[in-house]
Write a structure and sequence with these properties.
Strand content: 15-25%
Number of strands: 15
Distance between the termini: 9 Å
Strand order of the largest sheet: 5-4-3-2-1-7-6
Oligomer: single chain
Number of domains: 2
Shape: globular
Order of helices and strands: HHHEHHHEHEHHEHHEEHEHEEEEEEEE
CATH topology of the largest domain: TIM Barrel
Amino acid sequence: MAVVHRVGFVILLFMVTYCTCRYEPTWESIDSRPIPGWYDEAKVGIFIHWGVFSVPSFGSEWFWWYWQGTKVPHYVNFMNKNYPPGFTYGDFGPMFTAEFFNAKQWVDIFASSGAKYIVLTTKHHEGFTLWGSKNSWNWNAVDVGPRRDLVDELSTALRDHTSLHLGLYHSLFEWFHPLFNQDKANSYKTNYFPTTKSLPELYDLVTKFKPEILWSDGDGNAPDYYWNSTSFLAWLYNDSPVKDTVVTNDRWGYGTICKHGGFYTCTDRYNPGHLLKRKWENCMTIDQKSWGYRREAVLQDYLSTGDIIKTLVETVSCGGNLLINVGPTHDGRIAPIFEERLRQMGQWLKVNGEAIYSTTAWRAQNDTVTCGVWYTAKPQEKAIYAITLSWPTDGSIILGAPKVTEGQTQVALLGYKELKWEPVAAGGLRVYLPQLSPSEMPCSWAWTLKLTGAS
């Protein structure tokens, strides 16, 4: 079985590296492109939601829409109470200052988290671009607010740190752009907005910053042919400067999500709990109520480090990648609670990364006997990893899924040493865990048993 997995991996790597195929602007052709191997091996990424919505930093990153689109009373009352009559969303632009933004400091935090890639929101649904887009005149970070190209600064700092891949998020639609709303009123039979705004921005992002992930979002309920998505993706895969390494998601027009594109995202915070036929990603937030920074957040709104590790383990066990989101402040800081969570995840990965990075899903995702045990594998190394989310109180743990052989199977606790085990009558094995003081524990939150010589 391990030989088959290894051969398949080599064939896939060959196809990704050396394939000279030309992709046609059809979903059948676009969907046939293999996912570049680096993405599946990476497993962990950092999502960054940053924009003008970080100035009011209230409710969510959809602040403008909830305030003036659907006029949610909670948002309307907030504005009436705190800002003068006639204040517009555009007035928040100059307040997006980013004076404390230090790209190298951000990259240090992201690298310490154990993540292997980042995805920065270059433009959310508000239309404000974090780079000097010539298609977003006077509504971008070079002309307004910071008067700096924030995408360029972060991408430059990232490339100086070779362990991280650059990903860029881009919203196809914009809530209040007059051209989009004109096309919408015409039932998308005209395409003034994508041809003059959205598509030129996408080409600009790719040619200027050369991202290895292009994370599309926000179709505005417009179909993929309105966005000319397949033609753009054919160019991206055939002729762009990142054609061999770039990875894309599935949000390229109404009806494409969880159906077309590169990896699947399906819904926000997607965690199916089982294997999918295609590579997928769980994009989720540390602040459970928002992707953007919120000043009114309280401690209980944030996931604990244990919650994050649990989600990471479940996601990777089922063949997914975890994209974990932070929301920086308007002045460019990553709040200490976000930094703490990321650095603690990195501490856990320093011990247990062997069971996460470059692994594959095993034949069983979770254990058949003991709850809270999830599996990953490295077939080429004949290794199985059993990650338990809780430390047993009786000094041992039963694993029902592995098939073991006395004299051949070995079990080790990552970060510690080899452990004793014995077979159990019903099948599987009982592993005896050491009695350790808190200071002797190899890590916190979850622990990994490495099995070799098992099947």
